[in-house]
């Protein structure tokens, strides 16, 4: 799973994505659709995603930076990597 830039998507990446015309948000990648690997998530949310298989294999779940536990589903189209955690600092 890669960004449009070709870089591999990793859990914990800080990304920027479009919310609408001239509106952007930064968020942290917290779950990958390709294998459902994830960081620490609110348990009810995680149970729902896994049970109902609502995350597409080409999508990711991000946690909006300004609002803890506000999760959004998005594809990687127009998602830009801003910052990467140092190796070994992400958790599952």
Topology at a glance:
Elements: E1 14-20, E2 23-32, H1 43-52, E3 59-64, E4 71-75, E5 80-83
Determine the fraction of residues in helical runs and give it as a percent range: 10-25%
Strand order of the largest sheet: 4-3-2-1-5
Q: Provide the succession of SSEs.
A: EEHEEE
Summarize model confidence as the mean pLDDT: 90
Q: Give the termini separation.
A: 18 Å
Give the tally of β-strands.
5
Strand-pairing-aware structural class:
mainly beta
Tally of structural domains: 1
Q: What is the count of DSSP helices, taking H or I runs of 4+ residues? A: 1
Kindly list the characteristics that best describe this protein.
mainly beta; five-stranded antiparallel beta sheet; 92 residues
How would you portray this structure in words?
With 92 residues, this protein is mainly beta. The chain has one domain. It has one helix at residues 43-52, and strands at residues 14-20, 23-32, 59-64, 71-75, 80-83. A five-stranded antiparallel β-sheet has the order 4-3-2-1-5, with no helix packed on it. The protein is globular, with a radius of gyration of 12 Å. The two termini are 18 Å apart.
């Amino acid at each position: 799973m890669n960004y449009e830039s070709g870089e591999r998507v990793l859990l914990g990446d800080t990304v920027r994505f479009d919310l609408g015309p001239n509106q952007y948000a930064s968020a942290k990648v917290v779950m990958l659709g390709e294998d459902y690997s994830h960081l620490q998530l609110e348990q009810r949310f995680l149970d729902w995603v896994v049970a109902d298989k609502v995350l597409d294999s080409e999508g990711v779940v991000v946690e909006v930076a300004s609002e803890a536990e506000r999760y959004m589903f998005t594809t990687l189209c127009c998602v830009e990597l801003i910052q990467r955690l140092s190796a070994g600092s992400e958790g599952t």
